[in-house]
């Protein structure tokens, strides 16, 4: 009886034979795919079919890594944001400082050029602070009598007149700005040469050109410079520009509103000018004739009081001949002669001196009778 294994356990080719067959198939597929690209479609179909499964399998990993990245990114962003803010603030401060230094450099260069152009000796100074009175336009600058600054010296910058020194201390000085209501500067119009006086206003924002007749040739845009007639400001310094001219028929003078050329509140570095005027001194006023007559009367009265004897007994002891002689009027004779000369010089009439002489003679005669 022939024995054979049941079909369930029937064995096929041996394991070695199957290995060799599969190796050969694999090599054939590799060579064909490398040479002829035969499996690209198969790989594409398999990749598209397996991609959803791959994404589902990677979801737990993505969730974990996303949470870790979120925590790290939030902390990193906060730190970087703080660093960028600090850097931005530093750069902003440097930019502002650079702009301020640039403007100050240009301002100082212009002041240096101005001091080189001007023949008047000047002292550079800097505004330290404003005064406490809000109703006045005044500032305090560094530099006083120790630096040679004097009361009344003009203060300018590269654009024009700023004000005038009104008080001097050893190390500081007070400057009244051009826009102060009590400040006055003699000016003239460059275009026409018309001279006038410019004043500040109570608000301190504009300037008022006063004493300008209605018929004067003044238009908006005219430039005003110092005339130099006061002996305080050098002539030719820019002061203001005409902004508006109001002419009314019921007034004798026009209202001229001006704007200062140099910003009074914007400047910080200034020049104090040591200007010495070459204008001759003003001649003395001629005396008033009425005042001269009064002084002469006072002098004659004093002379009469000095010439009177003080003792009654001495009066009675004097002889009549001596009393008849006008001894008392003999002393004020020079005063009478000087009075005559003064009255001639001043155009005064003679009766004032003659009257005083007659009065003295009458008093002397009366004393002799007694």
Automatic annotation (TrEMBL):
Alphabetically sorted, this entry's keywords are: Cell shape, Coiled coil, Membrane, Transmembrane, Transmembrane helix
**InterPro entries in the record, alphabetically?**
Cell/Rod_1, Cell/Rod_MreC_2, MreC, MreC_beta-barrel_core
The annotated regions of Low complexity compositional bias extend over: 316-345, 360-370
Q: Which residues cross the membrane?
A: 12-31
Segments of skewed composition (Basic and acidic residues): 302-315, 346-357
Against PANTHER family, the record matches this protein to:
CELL SHAPE-DETERMINING PROTEIN MREC (PTHR34138)
The record's listing under NCBIfam families reads: mreC (TIGR00219)
The protein's name: Cell shape-determining protein MreC
Cite the source lineage: Bacteria, Pseudomonadati, Pseudomonadota, Betaproteobacteria, Burkholderiales
Q: Which gene encodes it?
A: mreC
């Amino acid at each position: 009886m022939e024995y054979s294994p049941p079909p369930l356990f029937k064995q096929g080719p041996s394991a070695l034979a199957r290995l060799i067959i599969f190796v050969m198939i694999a090599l054939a597929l590799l060579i064909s795919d490398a040479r002829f690209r035969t499996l690209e479609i198969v790989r594409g179909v398999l990749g598209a079919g397996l991609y959803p499964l791959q994404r589902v399998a990677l979801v737990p990993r993505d969730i974990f890594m996303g949470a870790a990245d979120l925590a790290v990114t939030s902390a990193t962003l906060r730190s970087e944001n703080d660093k960028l803010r600090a850097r931005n603030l530093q750069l902003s401060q440097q930019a502002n400082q650079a702009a301020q230094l640039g403007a100050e450099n240009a301002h100082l260069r212009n002041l240096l050029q101005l001091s080189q152009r001007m023949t008047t000796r000047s002292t550079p100074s800097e505004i330290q602070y404003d005064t406490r009175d809000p109703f006045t336009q005044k500032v305090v600058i560094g530099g006083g009598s120790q630096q040679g600054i004097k009361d009344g010296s003009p203060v300018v910058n590269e654009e024009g007149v700023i004000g005038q020194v009104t008080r001097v201390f050893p190390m500081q000085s007070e400057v009244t700005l051009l826009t102060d209501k009590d400040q006055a500067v003699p000016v003239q119009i460059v275009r026409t040469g018309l001279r006038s006086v410019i004043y500040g206003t109570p608000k301190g924002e504009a300037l008022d050109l006063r004493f300008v007749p209605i018929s004067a040739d003044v238009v908006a845009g005219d430039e005003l410079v110092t005339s130099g007639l006061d002996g305080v400001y050098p002539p030719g310094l820019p002061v203001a520009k005409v902004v508006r001219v109001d002419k009314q028929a019921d007034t004798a003078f026009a209202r001229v509103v001006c704007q200062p050329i140099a910003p009074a509140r914007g400047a910080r570095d200034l020049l104090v000018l040591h200007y010495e005027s070459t204008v001759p001194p003003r001649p003395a006023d001629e005396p008033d004739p009425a005042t001269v007559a009064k002084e002469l009367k006072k002098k004659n009265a004093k002379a009469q009081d000095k010439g009177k004897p003080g003792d009654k007994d001495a009066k009675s002891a004097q002889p009549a001949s001596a009393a008849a002689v006008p001894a008392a009027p003999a002393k004020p004779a020079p005063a009478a002669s000087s009075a005559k000369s003064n009255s001639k010089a001043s155009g005064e009439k003679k009766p004032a001196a003659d009257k005083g002489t007659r009065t003295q003679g009458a008093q002397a005669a009366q004393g002799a009778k007694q």
